[in-house]
Design goal:
Elements (H helix, E strand, L loop, with lengths): L3 E12 L6 H7 L1 E17 L6 E4 L3 E4 L8 H10 L6 E6 L9 H17 L5 H15 L7 H8 L2 E6 L5 E5 L4 H9 L1 E5 L6 H6 L6 H23 L2 H18 L6 H12 L4 E4 L7 E5 L3 H7 L5 E2 L9 E4 L1
Parallel strand pairs: 3-5
Antiparallel strand pairs: 1-2, 1-12, 2-5, 2-6, 3-4, 6-7, 8-10, 8-11, 9-10
Helix pairs in contact: 2-3, 3-4, 3-5, 4-5, 8-9
């Protein structure tokens, strides 16, 4: 078989982050709203004439036994989703890891997708998301939630309900054309310049802690309100909810909002932005800014790296097969 190329989208979380952690949703149920964006993780894999496992990611590896692979996601993906012998695999991403865009979940989804395709055993989006979540949460023991794997598997703008029995309800948001244009043209991603591990940031945030639990309850409520505002086409209300999310995440764990992030948020709001939220676990990464006057806001944040994006309707997809 020739090379297989697959890609999985990154995502922008619009509300409810943290309620997708098993330690929370298994007791209270979680709810997250997010949209996939047209920035991706790409992986190409082939078995042609390989004598060893040759892997290119942020590093270069060549090993004779897949158990010797240093990259934890690829090692577990090969152990549980591949039995076809030596393979060559290379990956690239449209954004750096650890920046709040769900890159780890997208990478895991894409790795499983390409290995399954190469073996001729594809998975449904729900199966793919669950396998990816199992790999990261159960096999690797990471303190993360499940929203990233679902966003990468399903694509689109969706609401995800995480039920105590570990099942997940997936619903596509009913957005009018004005809201879709706004998400594309008036929502801006600015990079704080700091990368971090979501698992490390979240590891100390125990869902049983009363302060954390109250904050997560509020984040779940805000996600429902966010979903309602978006489907009603009420972007002003959504801007207000972004600010409430900012404060709720700060209450959940003060370290999720750094001094630099506060400064960038202030600059954006003073330049006409209606709302700002930190993405992912916080502590760095990207900020999502909603501005009715995006060029004014961009000018005020001149020098801050921006990632331009559009919406992505598709989830993990094979490009060549």
């Amino acid at each position: 078989m020739g090379a297989i190329v697959a890609r999985a989208p990154l995502r922008v979380a619009l509300g409810g982050g943290g309620t997708d952690l098993p330690s929370y949703y298994r007791e209270h149920g979680g709810f997250v709203v997010s949209t996939a964006i047209d920035r991706h993780v790409h992986i190409v894999a082939t078995t042609g004439f390989q004598r060893s496992y040759r892997l290119k990611h942020l590093e270069w590896e060549e090993v004779d036994d897949p158990t010797e692979v240093r990259h934890p996601i690829l090692r577990e993906a090969l152990a549980h989703h591949w039995g076809g012998g030596p393979i060559e695999l290379a990956s690239v991403a449209d954004a750096p890891p650890g920046t709040g865009l769900g890159s780890s979940g997208a990478y895991t989804v894409c790795a499983i997708k390409v290995l399954r395709l190469l073996a001729g055993r594809d998975l449904s989006p729900a199966e793919l998301a669950e396998e990816a979540a199992h790999l990261e949460i159960d096999l690797l023991g990471r303190s993360i939630g499940k929203q990233d794997q679902y966003a990468a598997s399903f694509g689109g703008a969706r609401a995800y309900t995480f039920l105590p029995d570990d099942s997940v309800e997936v619903r596509q948001l009913d957005l009018n054309d004005e809201v879709r244009r706004a998400l594309r043209d008036h929502f801006l991603l600015f990079f704080t310049g700091r990368e971090r591990s979501a698992s490390d940031v979240l590891a100390g945030q125990v869902a049983g802690d009363a302060r954390v639990k109250r904050a997560l309850h509020r984040l779940r409520e805000l996600a429902h309100e966010t979903s309602d505002a978006l489907e009603a086409g009420d972007l002003d209300r959504f801007g207000d909810l972004m600010d409430e999310h900012w404060e709720a995440k700060r209450r959940r764990a003060p370290g999720t909002v750094t001094h630099e992030m506060d400064g960038l948020r202030t600059r954006a709001l003073e330049a006409g932005a209606r709302g700002v939220i930190s993405l992912g676990a916080g502590g760095g990464g990207f900020l999502l800014v909603y501005s009715p006057d995006p060029e004014r806001t961009r000018a005020a944040l001149d020098g801050v790296p921006e990632l331009r994006f559009g919406l992505e309707a598709r989830g993990a997809t094979a490009l060549v097969g």
